[in-house]
Amino acid sequence: MTSTHGLPYGLRGRAAVVTGGTRGIGRAVAAALAAAGALVCVSARDAAEVRRTAAELGGVGLAGSVAEPEHARELTRLALSEFGRLDILVNNAATNRPYGPLMDADLGLWREAFTVNVEAPLRLTQCAWRGWMREHGGSVVNICTEGAAHVGPDVGAYGTSKAALLHLTEQLAGELAPRVRVNSVSPGLVRTEMARFMWEPREDEIAAGLPLGRIGEPEDVAEAVLWLASDAARWVTGADLVVDGGTRVRAAHLPT
Which ranges form a coiled coil (predicted)? Predict the structure, then answer.
């Protein structure tokens, strides 16, 4: 697979870990990396889906929760034992709970949101750094959200935790350079199961309000991740690539 400018992504023989890699954005990312030649290790909670996805992509997988510290260590060990290297880490697994006004938020679920959305990416990056990237280099891509830049109803916990992940991305980019590049991709509304409750009831209305005329597909985000993970983005670190169909500029859009 090559970029639109014909530059090779150069992932053949490299190894990647993708969390939340069996459906939605994570599945599309894992498939794009595999198509570009990477060896892929996927992680998700459902063991059957992990086995099926790993088999379909010709890779390996590990079932478990990124909220568990040992899962990060086991996932890293699996990639290193199976592939002998770990060049790319995509922190995609996330939770959008607790959903609703923050004054009604269950603080246990609030802490879980930060454990899954912020602490787990840090822990996985630490494992990848210590296991391979410190000596050999690599690329980390965190999946954030376009919503981290502003507030909105009922998504305060998700947006706040993803804003923290965005800052973590920049901090790690500075600390781990030049050996490791750390970037993020911030999707807008994408057609996934996790976001179904947002897009399904009024998809046509939402699409009509976007400059690019449709909600996102997981593959739209995967292409951005693929570029950031590859040598085509070799002089890019600490960046957040927004993939939102024009959500942030729609106030200036004149419908045709």
Answer: none
